[in-house]
Structure of M18 family aminopeptidase:
Amino acid sequence: MTQQVAFNQGLLDFLQHSPSPGHAVASMVKELEAAGFKALSESDEWQLTPGQGYWLVREGRSIIAFRLGEQPVAETGVRMMGAHTDSPCLKVKPNAELFHHGYLQLGVEVYGGMLQHPWFDRDLSLAGQVHFQDEAGKLQVALLAIEKPIAVIPSLAIHLDREANKDSTINAQLHLPPILGMTKEEQASPSFVLREWLARQLRQTGHQVTQVIDYDLCFYDTQAPALVGLEQELISSARLDNLLSCYTGLQALLSTSSSLAVTSLLVCNDHEEVGSASAIGAQGPFLESVLRRLSGAEQAYQRMIARSLFISCDNAHALHPNFADKHDENHGPLINAGPVIKVNANQRYATTAETSALFSHFCDLAKVPYQRFVVRADMGCGSTIGPIAGTKLGVRVVDVGAPQWAMHSIRETAGTKDAWYLNQALHAFLNQWQGD
């Protein structure tokens, strides 16, 4: 098995076992622990050893992992990679139970800017965090992923909406609540059906649950990730945006040696898809607080920032052959043609000419191709955690990502070469770059 094939198989496994941000973080922690990285708590005083790897988590959904270099960070800077653990989805409301015409449904909120039509007629299930009271009266939290399909959002038949293929409008409040089955409304107990069902699921996994207090749950598609194409050159999966980058950055960090002089760091935040404004999002203090603890005094912190580089990894829009006119004619990235350097004059991406040149250099060191993306001048542009990191920290930033189709759909597509190419460029950044 070649390195690229093994890497992609690992990516598929990671995607399969990460149906929610909490599960993605748990999957990353498992790999970090297997590689000898040690857990840290923000509430403890840290005693760090050069060459050792560490990780810490906030609220179970955002993670920072780093390997401390042999030299002080003020003298070398920190080589940082950033991604996000969340993806657009349907989040379950607190009082979710709906009883309509003999069917049990759950009320949902649209999380992030998702494509809504692809969520219809999918085999859906639930995943996320459940907070409960145990038999000793203490509050606990557990990750829960129901692996079997338990819900569906059925489409309206074409016979009942003859204009569906021309102009179909979805009302998120009325048309997106998934159906979980049949029920008799008069026998139902509103606001407790879901919690009681969750309690039973947790007990089956060994948890001592007296009652479920609250939850952070999302619906997800149970269809497994897959290789697609006559030559299996495409990856089809949910949550490629942006778990592909989380996995790619993690593997690059795990490749670092304990003898490196420079500290390497990966941050993966929740809440990017809704603006990052939270205690665990990129606009929060999580990353800055860790960097200040690594540097110590203010002078050392400022010297560290001046010597650091942050690579914001978030997937890019690949040119779609059926909609090629949606791209600038000179900036339409192709799948399996290398990672994409993302540029925007209005600072929706944080790339500068300097940081673009640096990332190009990393690709050259790794002997992988690279591309550039600029949105059409008559279209709006999305954003990433890159501008946030640049604004909050004052650090140099480059925005890059693997090209993909169907961004923010329930099922997205990327290339089998591009995640590997990106990993190799990040590996060169952490292990081969002489610094600048």
User: Anything to note?
Assistant: DSSP finds eleven helices and 20 strands in the chain.
